[in-house]
Records
---
Amino acid sequence: MKKSISLTLKVWRQAGSTEKGSFETYAVKDISTDMSFLEMLDVLNEDLTREGKPPIAFDHDCREGICGMCGAVVNGRPHGPEKGTTLCQLHMRHFSDNDELVIEPWRSRAFPVVKDLVVDRSPLERIIIAGGYISVNTGSAPEANSLPVPQEAAEKAMDAAACIGCGACVAACPNGSAMLFTSAKISHLALLPQGRPEAARRAIGMVQEMDRLGFGNCSNITECQVECPKEVSISNIARLNREFMKAWLAADEK
Amino acid sequence: MAWVLKFFVSSVGRKLLMAGTGLCFVLFLTTHLAGNLLLYRGGDVFNAYAARLHSLGPLLTIFELGLLALALVHVVFGLWLFYENDRARPVKYAVKKSGGGQTWGSATMPYTGVLMLAFVIYHLIRFHFVDKTNIPIYEIVKAAFQNSFEVALYVAAMGVVALHVSHGFWSAFQTLGAHHTKYTPIIKAAGLIFSMVVGIGFGFIPIYMRLL
């Protein structure tokens, strides 16, 4: 088995949010197949730096697949072709020698490009600010049996809470919708007793904020759940729809 | 009352309108197909059905106006959503590749929708707003489908309808919040079966009338 590969990369380069961007072609050689995708970009950036050229800007933090900072569209697939994997956890063994990879940032009106592959995902934060929390004073952990939560509900809430807010769902959606993200955040609180008191206000507030920010509308194409590195299910989107209907039609919220 | 407006202009509210009106059209397609299948029983039966339907008088007019209202909502809101969705990604991807989530139906919804609108207008001019005082409807239909081009057009249009419904049926339930480990597979299967029944059921009629 070959231990190292060479690739041709076509990378989106854009100096700033107001600059015009374009694709630049780079050849990378002798990339160990044990490297992660981001390490491969690190190698390229070291070469670029040595040549006195500006390195490719890309977001990253933990490189363990749990922080949600990294992500780029590789050959049309957010976080690359592997299922349930962030870009940092995508290893070069999944590519072949002489592959040509087109690397683009998330494309969304709500996510302006900051530089190269870095986009501004703060709109996702604004959706959270619009209701993705519970208003209680947190102190020491309460007695475990004082608030019974069925195991199934806890599991579903945890599956929704697995969302790392990377924005791959928006990038993958042909409509540029943020429904999977918003539904995951609404679901993980709606499923638990602590989340119920503010459920109506949350559903309305977060959906209205999502609409205001210029995301597209969900039409159940389901590309989002396929590309989600945490495999968040569209059953959460159905739950968001239910929560939204309940909030408008049954609660006092306006 | 402002909350009603706010509800129906929100993204989810508009999707609910699309789902609700879409499911109404599923019911309409069912009754339309049931009526049209009488074409197989010959001119007398079909003309009698048409006469009976028109004897409903004002009730029929109310239904027709209702359908028109549903169509207006479905088309206007559909186009609005399509426009917004297109605007949500001003810079398109250089490479587009599906991860396997989308289907032919879901990927083409706005386009099949617009094609269906064009077809419905043509269809209404062809068979609805036509002078039926001297020639019974069965004879008009039969005469129309002696033209092979007309047959091909109608068969193709039914393919488009089937494609639209193949995604729309399931999608409507999902939008209405019906997603369940037990029922979703049944709803998806029912949607595919219904779209095939519609496609084949309507699509075979022009071919049959041509061969008659």
---
Amino acid sequence: MRRWLPYPILSVALAAAWLVLNQSVDAAHILLGVALGLAGGRILAALQPPHRRPRRAAVALELFFLVLADIVRSNIAVARIVLNPRQKRTAGFLSVPLELRHPAGLAAVACIVTATPGTSWARYDAARNIVTIHVLDLLDEEEWVHIFKQRYERRLREILE
Amino acid sequence: MSTAAALLILAGASLALIGSIGLLRMKTFYERVHPPTMGTTLGTGLVLIGSMVFFTLHESRPVLHEIVIGVFMTLNTPVTYMLLLRAALHRDQTEYSKQSN
């Protein structure tokens, strides 16, 4: 089991992606999808990523919908900024000290930050564990850091650490 | 229902358009990174949902492979954005440290 399915979720996702892409549930495609899933799991195991099974599916689901809502909200906010160029705003860099250290968590934060228009990941200082973010409309720095840590970092730590 | 699909696709396309206008209007590189993200997130999302609605009705079977496009977009665009931003930061290193002091 361990040997053939080191990452069961990844293998199932790969097989499902193959079937969805081919839009078919033929026996041949199922066979190919299963082979792809098994091979993908073995390849990932060979890469030896830091192993920790994610826990708390409920928190992960909550985070997913939170991020979805934030993407919609910030899309509207950025559209407003683009359409009202005379409105006063200050763009700038913002440093957020993190407690999260798990590489997968950092990757998730990077994806969330860049997927939300209005914020983008600028740099990460691994020694001091500080991430620098560029924000299009920086209203209140402290408020922003607080929201960031409460909304994303706390949940990611619950899931991963 | 195809009206709903059309509205979704139009809304997504409008977001991509506003994002491109933003790309033109913004003054600095770091600000310019932000507006096009609208096209790659909610813009793409709405167009994909519109496509799923339309083709599911049109072919009267669930058409879901748009989800895979969405997953790939979400995983790939941050990489490009980060590379661009890091390159700009590298270029402006001296200027940026002057600004922040």
---
Amino acid sequence: MNFWNMLAELLKGLTVSVEIFALTLVFSLPLGLVIALGRMSKNVLIKNIFRIYISIMRGTPLMLQLFVWYFGPYYLFKISLSDLSFLGIEYRFTSVIIGFSLNYAAYFAEIYRAGIESIPKGQYEAACVLGYSPVQTFGKIIFPQVIKRIIPPVTNEVITLVKDTSLAFSLSVLEMFTIAKQISSAYTTMVPFAVAGLFYYIFNFAVAAGMEFVEKKLNYYR
Amino acid sequence: MPVFQIAHLSKSFKDLQVLKDISMEVCQGEVVAIIGPSGSGKSTLLRCATFLETMDRGTLSYGNIAAVTCDEQGNSIYASPEILKKARGQFGLVFQNFNLFPHYSVLKNITDAPVSVQKRKEKEVREEAKILLRKMGLSGRENAYPFQLSGGQQQRVSIARALAMKPDILFFDEPTSALDPELTGEILKVIRDLAAEHMTMVIVTHEIDFARKVADRIIFMADGLIVEEGDAETLVSHPRNERTKAFLANLHSPDETAVPR
């Protein structure tokens, strides 16, 4: 296999990695906020359900969770989803998105919670006295300030996610790392790993630059 | 009819009773100062009046809006959310720490609540906000953000923010306590100007000299009780109660380390 063919294969894999990355963010960022609000609920039952959820998601390996989502339906309930494709997407890929989204949402939830709890009580009190409804208070006053504060830890998670997409290799999803491994074994060469490594680095460089841009944009206030 | 009326208010935090059977009323155009040692319940009284704390016992009303009534045992019963919302529209509160919204410009801090809470026209609110800013000596700072302003300027913005809601009564919770001593004067001047315009105000303060000059009436509180109240000048120069005397003497004693500003 010549270098250019290899490069083309890896780039094809990279698009799948980017899909996993983007879809995970699309689902886990909003879900994380819901989990954070549940975790902060005054209702003890709801609070503890979300606390346990976060504990499990953070306390077990993501790869193991991917196996549970992929194999669980059949092993546990004898439901075969493996052949099922939804809108042309096979379950192998769907289970990766489910696993990643639910796992990352737990981490994002704790970041949101830290951000929300760091906003001074006076902000809520000022909003309350001015007559803002609870929804307005959160949406207009609290959450915009939370976003500014959580950008650095969110950047950390997003960068980790770029690298974690390679875990989809465990379910043989044809993302970049899986393809690099296949080519490497077939041709006994390290080159695909080196190239894949470079791609991951460039990907993360762009992510970090993007987040820095957002951070600068929000620097108009303190 | 008084603009603001509170009767037999009691409030406890766990086992500590911080307010004991407080009754007071404020009439249209009146300026009332509340003084007293720290821990006397002044701020809690203000926080109960503005619904930031819930009352245990007693009643509260703004004009003819009965926001809190009580049962036969005197336990407070809060009115429906709609009535409380209406009551909230009657007062403004200026905080010790300003509590401006840091992500909003000065102008937006002032205009956002009138527009999004009171649903008034943005253009009209904007014009009023500019007039308020001129009154506060902050013309030209419309587009600044709170962090770019001094403490005194921030506090003046927060006063403008409260006034933009057109309240019937304005509460101040130690409005100069978080400021450098040289910045307190500008806030006190603003309050004096408002008093001259007959704005109804209740001011919790440590500035006794200021209270004497600007207030019509002073309430002296200690240990959750109203110990003495009366005409501002008389209360400061001829206090009757021993505790009031001790408090004022302490403030004026020259060898005190805590020199009054």
